[in-house]
Every structure is written in structure tokens, then in C-alpha cells.
Specification:
Elements (H helix, E strand, L loop, with lengths): L2 E5 L3 H13 L3 E5 L2 H10 L4 E5 L1 E2 L2 E2 H11 L5 E5 L4 H9 L4 E4 L4 H38 L3 H14 L6 E4 L6 H11 L7 E5 L5 H9 E2 L11 E2 L1 H4 L4 E5 L6 H13 L1 E2 L8 E2 L3 E6 L3 H6 L5 H7 L2 E4 L10 H16 L5 E2 L1 H9 L5 H15 L4 E2 L6 H4 L1 H9 L8 H19 L4 H8 L3 H11 L2
Helix pairs in contact: 2-3, 5-7, 5-13, 6-7, 13-15, 18-19, 18-20, 19-20
Keywords: ATP-binding, DNA-binding, Nucleotide-binding, Phosphoprotein, Transcription, Transcription regulation
Pfam families: AAA_lid_14 (PF25601), HTH_8 (PF02954), Response_reg (PF00072), Sigma54_activat (PF00158)
GO biological process, one term: phosphorelay signal transduction system
């Protein structure tokens, strides 16, 4: 229930506002003077204030200033029976949300209160999103002891100070490239402007230009109206180009032109539009190899790679794994009310010994699943999935033939056949899904299937 504070020295006004807003389901507190108002705002979580500028001996603008110092993001609607342009402008300059003259109608009050509370809600939502993006980033120094991870954090904090510098984040899938990108944005002076992300591999080449730069009405068959592109939408903020290594060479040339000129032109347009954005890009590909093979432009690489950040895979920083697991255990245990408080030493050893091909994303998913299914207080080895707990290894050892009864190559071939057949059955014969299950390229799978006669 939203909490609204009415500050007015007239009892009739306070009672009338309490009645109107109380009927709409709001909790209404009241104060007849600035002193009481200051105490309430300090003690209570107030969502909105209605403030009379004329409080007898007190100046409402002084009270407004004090309230904003106590709670800088507090929304205040100023009301007065002695309205003037000067007082209205003064209150708005000091951060008032709106200005109403007495007498006001109940319906008008309801509308402006609803709009103000929606604004408050949106602000809190944005703050929660930002905090969520920064939560792990801020806690990593406490849970991560690997020097490379600490260096990544230092680099991200450093580049956040330079709002124009392009950043290229490299690393395997699941290592947290998007998290670092969001953290750089929210730590920078651009934090109040949009952070807009796009996966360059997920959008067809014929649509990507329109997504990035927008288009004019009639630019192509389906362009029934003008569309603002993501670069325009991200103006003053940050655009995150994920999987930049998958971008078509034609689009690479157009992106390079934008980075050099800081201007975009909508598809079908004739006018250049200035844009002020920081570009953060990310890839799990080796762009140096892509340049040598002609798949990625060298000049674009240098434009994107002004400040490089490489995130090593989790298997190369095993000492971080127990701390990260504890972080996610606390997070999801609280979310699902599971009461987990610690991880047993055996479970920590098993977690640190696993290779984590899916990196942090896989670790997070494993801990989340454990918290969904199990109850605390201690995460133990039996809670872990077989591939981590060692059950899969023990099952494999049980199937090993007696040493000397069969040659190694024959045994390996028989095991490969079993694995591929089981994966094909699980994926209903879909080769692409089977390759994903076996974590091998599709071409490798087809070769093995042909060799084994499958």
C-alpha cells in the first residue's frame, strides 16, 4: 500500500485529502507543520508528499528543500491557495513534481497522485535493475580471490570513468560479458541514460541495419512508419553489441562509418543524425583469427578494441568457484526461502574440481536448481548433479571392460557408439541437438556417425 504524506496547516484540507485518497486505498499520513513532516519523512518510507507552500510562519519552499535533503528522490506535489508563477517556478526548480492551486477537484488530485506514484514506481524499478546488474559486480571483490578477476574489476571501474571509450569484452559463453558491460554503464556518467543491448547473431542481415539505425517510412515494402534505431534510442547512453564477431562484413563497414563520424542515417533517409553513445561490444570468437581469414575488418577491430577486457573461463580461476557458489546459494536460498547457510567442504571441492563448460551461467543455473528442489541448511555433495558429484564417473567405471579383454581403440569406439546412440535417442534423431548434448561440433558428429555406421 502506497504511503502519502499531506503537509498543510489547515485541518479541513488535511481531512479532505485523507478522505479522498483513503477511499482510493492509499495510506495517508498528515502533518500540520514542517517539523512533524521532517520527522515523518525521516522515520517512514513515504512514497509521495503533498505540500502546502503556506504553512503559517513557515515557508513551504524551506520545507521542500529540507525534505529533498532527507530523501533526494522523494516526489513532492506543491499545493497552495496563493499561487503565483514565481512560487511555481521556484518549487519546480527545487525538484517539485507538480504544482496545484487550491481549491482543487478530487478527480484532478486523484489523477496527479496516480501519475506521481507511477513515476515513483518506475524510479524504484530502474534502481532495482541497476542494483541487480551491479550486485555481483560489487560483491566479487569479497568472494573472488583470483588476481585476473580482480584485474577485470579494476579495468571495468577505470574505463567507466571515460564515457567516450569503446570497450571490447572477450571470453567464452557464460563468463559474464553482459554483466561487465552493464556494470561499466551503471558506474559511468551515462548511468541515467539508456543501456540498450542487441545480439548481432540473432538478427538477419537484412533487418540488422534497420534495427541499429532505424528507417524512414516507405524505405522498403514493410516500412509503414518511421522507426527509431537503437543507436538513436541509446543517445547519451550505452549500446552493447553482443556477438559482434558474427556481424556481416557489409554491416561492419556501416558500423565503422558510424563510429568514425558519430552520426547515423536511417535506412531510406537523406539526413545524418548526430548520436552520442558509448559502444561496448563482446564476442566469444578470436577476432584476430577472423581478421586473418577475412571475416572481420581490421579497421573496425581497432575502433572497437580501444579498451579490451578479457574474461578468463571459470576453469582457469577455480579458487573463485566456492565463493561464487556461496554468493548464488545465498541469493536463491533467500528467493525460494530454502534456508541454505553454507556449503560443505566436500561439495566445495567437487564444485572447484568441475570444468564448468558453461562457466558462470552454468554455475548459477546449478545452484538455482538445487535451491528449487532442496532445503537447507547445508549444500552437500548429494545435492550436486551427477556430472559434478562424480556419480557419472563412477557409472562409467562400472561399465569398463576387464583390462586385457579388449583393445583400447575398440573400447573407445564402443563407448563412442553408446554415447552417440543415447544422445540421438534423447534428441529424437535431431543431429544439431545431439551435437549440443555431446558438446561437439555438428561436423565432428557427422564424421563420427559415418565412421561408426550410425
Amino acid at each position: 500500500m502506497e504511503k502519502i504524506l499531506i503537509i498543510d496547516d489547515e485541518p479541513f484540507i488535511r481531512e479532505n485529502v485523507e478522505r479522498i485518497l483513503g477511499e482510493d486505498g492509499y495510506q495517508v499520513l498528515s502533518a500540520a507543520d514542517g517539523t512533524t513532516a521532517r520527522e515523518l519523512v525521516s522515520a517512514e518510507e513515504i512514497d509521495l508528499v503533498l505540500l502546502d507552500l503556506n504553512l503559517g510562519k513557515e515557508n513551504g519552499l524551506d520545507v521542500l528543500k529540507d525534505l529533498r535533503e532527507i530523501e533526494p528522490e522523494l516526489l513532492v506535489i506543491v499545493i497552495t491557495g496563493y499561487g503565483s508563477v514565481e512560487s511555481a517556478v521556484a518549487s519546480l526548480k527545487m525538484g517539485a513534481f507538480h504544482y496545484m492551486k487550491k481549491p482543487f477537484k478530487a478527480d484532478a488530485l486523484r489523477v496527479i497522485v496516480k501519475l506521481a506514484l507511477q513515476t515513483t514506481s518506475l524510479k524504484r524499478e530502474v534502481r532495482a535493475i541497476r542494483q541487480g546488474a551491479l550486485e555481483l559486480f560489487e560483491k566479487v571483490p569479497l568472494v573472488g580471490v583470483n588476481s585476473s578477476l580482480k584485474e577485470i574489476i579494476r579495468q571495468a571501474r577505470e574505463v567507466a570513468r571515460f564515457a567516450e571509450a569503446s570497450v571490447l569484452i572477450t571470453g567464452e559463453s557464460g563468463t559474464g560479458k553482459e554483466l561487465i558491460a552493464k556494470s561499466i554503464h551503471h558506474l559511468s556518467d551515462r548511468r541515467e541514460a539508456p543501456f540498450i543491448e542487441i545480439n548481432c547473431a540473432s538478427i538477419p542481415i537484412n533487418l540488422l541495419e534497420s534495427e541499429l539505425f532505424g528507417h524512414e517510412k516507405g524505405a522498403f515494402t514493410d516500412a509503414s512508419a518511421r522507426k527509431t534505431g537503437l543507436f538513436e534510442a541509446a543517445n547519451k547512453g550505452t549500446i552493447f553489441l553482443d556477438e559482434i564477431g558474427e556481424m556481416d562484413p557489409v554491416m561492419q563497414a556501416k558500423l565503422l562509418r558510424v563510429l568514425e563520424s558519430r552520426q547515423i542515417r536511417r535506412v531510406g533517409g537523406t539526413r545524418n543524425i548526430d548520436v552520442d553513445v558509448r559502444v561496448i561490444s563482446a564476442t566469444n570468437r578470436n577476432l584476430s583469427d577472423a581478421i586473418k581469414s577475412g571475416l572481420f575488418r581490421e579497421d573496425l577491430f581497432y575502433r572497437l578494441n580501444v579498451f579490451p577486457i578479457h574474461i578468463p573461463p571459470l576453469r582457469e580461476r577455480r579458487e573463485d568457484i566456492p565463493g561464487l557458489a556461496a554468493f548464488y546459494l545465498d541469493k536463491y536460498s533467500r528467493a525460494f526461502s530454502r534456508g541454505f547457510q553454507e556449503i560443505s567442504e566436500e561439495a566445495k571441492t567437487l564444485l572447484a574440481g568441475y570444468n564448468w563448460p558453461g562457466n558462470i551461467r552454468e554455475l548459477k543455473n546449478v545452484i538455482e536448481k538445487i535451491c528449487i528442489i532442496n532445503q537447507g541448511p547445508t549444500l552437500t555433495a548429494p545435492h550436486l548433479p551427477p556430472e559434478i558429484s562424480g556419480a557419472a564417473t563412477r557409472a562409467l567405471q562400472a561399465e569398463l571392460p576387464e583390462i586385457g579383454s579388449i583393445g583400447l581403440e575398440e573400447a573407445v569406439e564402443a563407448f563412442e557408439r553408446k554415447m552417440i546412440q543415447a544422445a540421438l535417442a534423447k534428441s529424437s534423431g535431431n543431429v544439431l541437438k545431439t551435437a549440443d548434448l555431446l558438446k561437439i561440433p555438428r561436423g565432428t558428429l557427422r564424421y563420427k556417425m559415418g565412421r561408426l555406421g550410425l
